Each structure stands twice: as C-alpha cells, then as structure tokens.
Amino acid sequence: MCPWNKFAQAGHELKLSARHELQAPHLADLARLDDAAFRKMFSKSPIKRTGRNRFVRNVLIAIGNSGDATLAPEAIRLLSDPSALVRGAAVWAVSRLLPAERLAALAIDRRAHESEPLVADEWTAALAATAA
Exposed e or buried b for every residue in 64-74, given b needs 16+ CB within 10 A? Predict the structure, then answer.
C-alpha cells in the first residue's frame, strides 16, 4: 500500500465512482459471462480491454484458489468453452477443487476430445499432480 494513500480523499466525480453491479461480484456469475454479457458489464471500463477469455481465465484462477468446491460446476462447465485459454484454466481450476477420482473420470471423458495441445498438457499436469 502506498504511504501517500493516507492523504487520499473520496472522489466526488460521479462518473469515476464504482458501479454497484461491480462491487463484490460472485465468482460464479463472472464465470458465466459470454462475450456479449462481458462487453455489456464492462463497457466504459478498462477491464473491457482484457477481453472475455482472459478475464474468465482469471476468474477460473480465483475459483481454483478459492477452495470452494461449490464453484466446481462452473469450472466443469467451462471445460467445453470455445476458447482454449479458458478450457486450460478450467482444467487447472477443477484439479484444485475436485477429488482425484472425480478429476480422473473427467479426464477420461474430456481429454480424448481435446484438440488443443496446451489444454491436453494441462490435463497431464493436473493428473500428475493428483497422483503425487
């Protein structure tokens, strides 16, 4: 934290204040954003420049780090996302939230149909980590 922040004051410019819908959003809601919803939610925001796929990847990292197994269905759903970036992050997230036997069952079902080598590598790494 910057020591100069102790002198900061709340801004009075309404257009610079945080939008209500973006204050403490639920990870599950953010994981469900398609491109149109992402663009609408983050219009006139610097987050929009990130793009939906990179944003959802970051959401999946937060989901995986959360330790909240109730978020696993969102990560599992994203294993079928059109974006390889999102699918790879989804593999990592489910590997952090699911027991090894459930992860292995998902890998049998999903890995054989994965055409992107980097996502297949994520499956390999996830399965190796659970075997260790």
Answer: beeeeeebbeb
In this structure, the number of other CB atoms found within 10 A of the CB of residue 15 comes to: 6
Statement: residue 83 has pLDDT above 70: yes
Q: How many helices (H) and strands (E) does the chain have?
A: 7, 0
- pLDDT for res 81: 97
Residue type at 130 in one-letter notation: T
CB-based contact 42:48 (threshold 8 Å): yes
56 contacts 39 by C-beta, under 8 angstroms: no
- Tokens 């992107």 belong to 116
Cα separation of 18 and 34, whole Å? 22
Write down the pLDDT at residue 19.
65
The pLDDT, as a whole number, for residue 51 is 96
The pLDDT score that the predictor gives to residue 34 is 96
